[in-house]
Design brief:
alpha/beta, 8 helices, globular, TPP-bd_CS, thiamine pyrophosphate binding, thiamine pyrophosphate
């Protein structure tokens, strides 16, 4: 899935009542910030400064607790999720029906791109092979992967009514 497909699916599934909580991630600042409508105040929560990796998941837990009847989705990059992934355990204990989307570009993609653009040696920006769905399951959540917009939409619809959080991994997600 690319940015446009991702934001179209999010807009459709969340509707006018939903809350999207974004992390400092390429999928947010190249996608959700410009392509996802916010129909009311506090319907798009996002850290305003760069470098605030890890904000999305704990903020989404707070949003879901504050508005339990509203659909809430957390949107993370793979690098940022590694800062607060343990909060999946807290969300599972609370049995929150909270979808957590993780866009996977193999590490800290924005930093990697900036290093390459400057001609710097690109190093220490990869995460290696993290099995995000298995990590979610180990922390008491559902965990699965989605390959395209249709499977993502279906996974989100199921996750919004699940008995616990669902991590939805978008493998090989690339900025387009």
């Amino acid at each position: 899935a690319d940015h446009l497909v991702l934001t179209e699916v999010l807009s459709k599934v969340l509707g006018r009542e939903g809350i999207l909580v974004g992390d400092s991630a390429m999928s947010c600042y190249y996608g959700a910030l410009s392509n996802t409508p916010a129909y009311r105040p506090r319907s798009f929560l996002y850290p305003t400064g760069l470098g605030t990796l890890g904000y999305g998941l704990p903020a989404a837990v707070g949003a879901k607790l504050a508005r339990p009847g509203a659909p809430v989705v957390a949107l993370h990059g793979d690098g940022g999720l590694m800062f607060t992934v343990q909060e999946l355990a807290a969300a599972a204990q609370l049995r929150l029906p909270l979808p957590v989307i993780v866009t996977d570009n193999g590490g800290y993609g924005e930093i990697r791109n900036e290093m390459a653009e400057r001609g710097d040696p690109v190093h220490a920006v990869g995460l290696g092979a993290v099995d995000f769905p298995a990590t979610a399951r180990a922390l008491g959540c559902h965990g699965l992967s989605a390959e395209d917009g249709d499977t993502l939409a279906h996974a989100l619809e199921q996750a919004l009514v699940a008995d616990r959080p669902t991590l939805i991994h978008l493998p090989e997600y690339a900025a387009r």
